[in-house]
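User:
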Amino acid sequence: MSAHAANKTPLFSVILPTRDRAAMLPRAVSSVLSQSLADFELIIVDDGSVKPCGDGLPRDARIRILRNASSLGVAHARNRGIQAARGKYISFLDDDDEYLPSLLHLTHTGLSGSPDEIGISWCGVRYIDDPITPGASSASRTRTFGQHNNRQSLLADFLTIGIGFGVTIKSDCLKKVGLFNDRLKVSSDSDMFIRILAKGFTPTALPDVHVVLYNHHGARLQSTKTIPERIQTWEWFLSQYSDFLDDNLILRRKFVNYIDSLKKKLESSSNRTTSDRSRSQAGRLLSRLLRLPIRHANEP
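Assistant: Predicted structure:
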């Protein structure tokens, strides 16, 4: 499929938030431009980089760059991209990862013509793990998803992924569910997934691997430093979505088990006094911020 004309609505909008990763961003951008399906726009949201991104990126009419004067967080950056997006399908990519050339084509195959209740898709990934020992080789592993025999197993798998698993959401689904909760500093993608399910939408898993995720030693939202806030956030999920979880007790149990695993990881990775203080601070922040309503996709 050829690239869309400048005055034609693209089939896909790819949202790529970035901040101070000038060395990694070109790889992510190139992976989008290398898609076998070329009918897309790429919206890069620079979330307050010290040096604004753009230098060294390819010149391509499908690329738009939006800039925040200061960092407002990854959820806010994704929301800004969504509000600027024109595509029928909204895909997401982090600046330290890359698409394989097949991602958009396979996503279109999976979503086009699907029932209205199918609101979101994801795919398998290949992890590249940076070595712990300097000079050692990187390790590679994959995670794929087979056929799901029942809805519970489908939802259980769905709620173990992150936005980096080639996630694409139909624009019509986003209009009903709303934007990412930008008061959440962690797990805003999981919050979005829960809300999509609670609204009655069903996810679909695409076969095989179409994204590469890089586990590196730079600053990442999944670092141990964010564990206290992740614990507080997932405990908030249990309360906020209690009606949905009461109808999906297996998922409730998995939420509780995940929180318990985070607590064990926290205990083994840091001093308890420091951890309790960090967790208390995170709890106060969440209780203050989460009283505000979630914005919808058409709100400024």
